[in-house]
Amino acid sequence: MVNISVLNLKGEKKEKIALDSYVFGIEPNNPVIFDVVTATRRMATQGTHKVKTKDEVAGGGRKPWKQKGTGRARHGSIRSPQWRTGGVVFGPTTEKNYQVKLNKKVWNLGYRSVLSQKCKENALIVVDKMKIAEPKTRKIVAVIKNLGYTDKKILILSKKFNPILSLATSNVPLIEYEEINQCNIIQIMHADYVVLDKESVMEVQNKLMNKTKENNK
């Protein structure tokens, strides 16, 4: 078990909770983290880039000059790739698939490795309830100041989408808010500190443990 302190929004220690070491206390697997980060980045590629091939370029309906007798090289169409306005060879098209397939166990291990690394660095912050009264920037900035992480990049995670937190953090460059199901491994890695409430941290633990149990059946 990994024991971690629970703070209130004033930065005061309220209690300690025990988190499962299977999720928050393993030795980080760097090769797996690399694979998951690479897959995440590739899957985020929209694949909307497109160039025109020889068949799609306009013009070139007739032979530019006769085959012999001009002293110039033979050409059949100005749509050929060697022409300035011709088609592109082996250029990007929308047919390319950027999806990367990784086993569920690999994804699971990648997230557990990153979360365990955050625990080792004391960069995982658990609060009792992450709630503010109104969607004001000064409110969330005051909370982060009470926790003592004013000049750090903060990632706040919650079990369910909270519109008040989303609006309050939208104008603060160093504070990012995300729902657990929408968060990816790169966001966790780039954050100096990850802040969750008790409900959210238990949700993360249950998700990562249950997925592994289902895969082992």
- Biggest pleated sheet: 6 strands, mixed
Low-confidence stretches: none
State mean pLDDT (0 to 100 scale).
89
* DSSP helix fraction: 25-40%
As for the CATH topology of the largest domain, it is: Ribosomal Protein L4, Chain: A
Strand content: 5-15%
User: Which structural class do you get from the secondary structure elements?
Assistant: alpha/beta
The CATH level-2 architecture of the largest domain is identified as: 3-Layer(aba) Sandwich
**Nearest-angstrom radius of gyration?**
27 Å
In the residues, how many domains can be counted?
Answer: 2
Order of strands across the main sheet: 2-1-3-6-4-5
Order of helices and strands: EEHHHEHEHEHEH
Query: How many β-strand stretches?
Result: 6
> What is the CATH C level class of the largest domain, in words?
Alpha Beta
Shape: elongated
- Put simply, the count of helices is 7
Q: Give the full name of the CATH homologous superfamily of the largest domain.
A: Ribosomal protein L4/L1
Query: What is the rounded distance between the termini?
Result: 24 Å
Structural account:
With 217 residues, this protein is an alpha/beta fold. The chain has 2 domains: 2-45 and 100-216, Ribosomal Protein L4, Chain: A, CATH 3.40.1370; 47-97, no CATH class. Helix content is 36%, strand content 15%. The protein has 7 helices and 6 strands; from the N terminus they run ββαααβαβαβαβα. The chain has helices at 21-24, 30-43, 104-120, 137-147, 163-169, 185-190, 198-216; strands at 2-7, 13-19, 124-127, 154-158, 175-179, 193-197. α3 (104-120) packs antiparallel against α7 and α4 packs across α5. It is elongated, with a radius of gyration of 27 Å. The model has no long low-confidence stretch (mean pLDDT 89).
